[in-house]
C-alpha cells in the first residue's frame, strides 16, 4: 500500500546560546514552532527487505540521506528487538520543498517522518519517546518533529517542554546561500554566554537569535534580506540560517509584502502551527 506523509518545516522563534558543553556542542534555549509548509513523503512498505529512495538528491549521497539513514536505524533497532523480520522493507519518494541548509529543519523533519511512518507501517510498536531517543542520534531537531507539539527546548534541543506561542503568519525568505550549521557554531565571534532565563521570562521579552549577528557578518545576502524585511515587520533568522522570517497577524499582510519582494529573494508565506501536520496525520 502506498501512503503519503507530511514532513513540515520548523522555525526557531527565538534562539539563545547559553553555554558550550565539553564535547563542543552548544547549550541552547529555543522555541520551536511548525509551519503548514513542508515536504511530502510517499512511502510504500514492502516485504522485499530493501530500503530504496526512488527520488535521489543531487546534493546528498543516498548513504547520507536522512530518509534512508532513519529507515536503516529503525530497521536495525527493530530487528535486534525482534519486532520485525529481515523482510521488512520500504520504498520512498519525496517532493522536496524545504530549502536545504536553510535553518528550517528539513533533514531532521524527513528523518522524523520516516521513523514515525515506518513505526506505524511495520507495526513496531515503539513509543514516541523511544523514537525521539533514536532520532536524536540523527540530528538535534529530530525529537521535536517526532513529538509534534510546538516546544521550548533546552540542552542541545533534546529537553522539550510543550509551548503554545501565537500561530502567526510568516513570510519566510531564502537569500540564495546555504549555510552549514558547523560554520556558524564554529565562529569565534558567536555569543555563547547569554544568561539562562525561565520560559515565562523569555515569553515576555522581545525575541532574538544569537546566531544572527555572526551570520549577517559572514553572509552579506542575509544581512541585505533582513535590512529589507525589517522595513515591514519584526524579522529574524531561523536556526543557523540561511532563512529569515518576518511575522504578521494576517495572511493578507504577509502576502502584500511578498508581492513587493525583489527578484533575488525566494520567499513563501506560511502559517505557524503548534500541532504539526505529521501529528495531525497520525490521529486521522
Ligand atoms: C541550531 C538548530 O538549527 C536549532 O534548531 C539545530 O540544533 C541544528 O541542528 P542540525 O542542523 O541538525 O545540527 P546537527 O547535525 O545536530 O549538528 C551539526 C553540527 O553543529 C554543531 N552543533 C549543533 C547543535 C548544537 N546544539 N551545538 C553545536 O555545536 C556541532 O558541531 C554539530 O556537529
Ligand atoms: N533528507 C534530507 N533533507 C535535507 N537535507 C538532508 C537530507 N539528508 C541529508 N541532508 C543533509 O543535511 C543537511 C542539513 O539539512 P537540514 O535541512 O536539516 O538543515 P537546516 O535546514 O539548516 O536545518 P537546521 O540547521 O535548522 O537543522 C543538508 O545540507 C544536507 O546536506
From TrEMBL:
InterPro entries: GHMP_kinase_C_dom, GHMP_kinase_C_sf, GHMP_kinase_N_dom, IspE, Ribosomal_Su5_D2-typ_SF, Ribsml_uS5_D2-typ_fold_subgr. Keywords: ATP-binding, Isoprene biosynthesis, Kinase, Nucleotide-binding, Transferase. Residues 65-148 form the GHMP kinase N-terminal domain. ATP binds at residues 99-109. It catalyses: 4-CDP-2-C-methyl-D-erythritol + ATP = 4-CDP-2-C-methyl-D-erythritol 2-phosphate + ADP + H(+). It is an enzyme of class 2 (transferase). Pfam families: GHMP_kinases_C, GHMP_kinases_N. The keyword Cell membrane does not apply. GO terms for molecular function: 4-(cytidine 5'-diphospho)-2-C-methyl-D-erythritol kinase activity. Residues 197-259 form the GHMP kinase C-terminal domain. Belongs to the GHMP kinase family. IspE subfamily. Homodimer. This is 4-diphosphocytidyl-2-C-methyl-D-erythritol kinase. It comes from Tatumella terrea. The gene is ispE.
Amino acid at each position: 500500500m502506498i501512503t503519503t506523509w507530511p514532513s513540515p518545516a520548523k522555525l526557531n522563534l527565538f534562539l539563545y546560546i547559553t553555554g558550550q558543553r565539553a564535547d563542543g556542542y552548544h547549550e541552547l534555549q529555543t522555541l520551536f514552532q511548525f509551519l503548514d509548509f513542508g515536504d511530502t513523503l510517499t512511502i510504500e512498505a514492502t516485504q522485499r527487505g530493501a530500503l530504496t529512495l526512488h527520488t535521489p538528491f543531487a546534493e546528498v549521497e543516498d548513504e547520507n540521506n536522512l530518509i534512508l539513514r532513519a529507515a536503516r536505524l529503525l530497521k536495525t533497532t527493530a530487528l535486534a528487538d525482534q519486532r520485525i523480520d529481515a523482510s521488512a522493507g520500504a520504498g520512498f519518494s519525496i517532493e522536496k520543498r524545504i530549502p536545504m541548509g536553510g535553518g528550517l529543519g528539513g533533514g531532521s523533519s524527513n528523518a522524523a517522518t520516516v521513523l514515525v511512518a515506518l513505526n506505524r507501517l511495520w507495526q513496531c510498536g515503539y513509543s514516541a519517546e523511544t523514537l525521539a531517543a533514536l532520532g536524536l542520534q540523527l540530528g538535534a531537531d529530530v525529537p521535536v518533529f517526532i513529538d509534534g507539539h510546538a516546544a521550548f527546548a533546552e540542552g542541545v534541543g533534546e529537553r522539550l517542554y510543550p509551548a503554545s506561542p501565537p500561530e502567526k503568519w510568516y513570510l519566510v525568505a531564502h537569500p540564495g546561500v546555504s549555510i552549514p550549521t558547523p560554520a556558524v557554531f564554529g565562529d569565534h565571534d558567536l555569543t555563547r554566554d547569554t544568561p539562562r532565563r525561565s520560559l515565562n521570562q523569555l515569553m515576555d521579552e522581545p525575541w532574538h537569535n544569537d546566531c544572527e549577528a555572526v551570520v549577517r557578518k559572514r553572509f552579506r545576502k542575509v544581512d541585505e534580506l533582513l535590512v529589507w524585511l525589517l522595513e515591514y515587520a519584526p524579522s529574524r533568522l531561523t536556526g543557523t540560517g540561511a532563512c529569515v522570517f518576518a511575522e504578521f497577524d494576517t495572511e493578507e499582510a504577509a502576502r502584500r509584502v511578498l508581492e513587493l519582494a525583489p527578484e533575488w529573494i525566494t520567499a513563501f508565506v506560511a502559517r505557524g502551527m503548534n500541532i504539526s501536520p505529521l501529528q495531525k496525520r497520525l490521529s486521522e
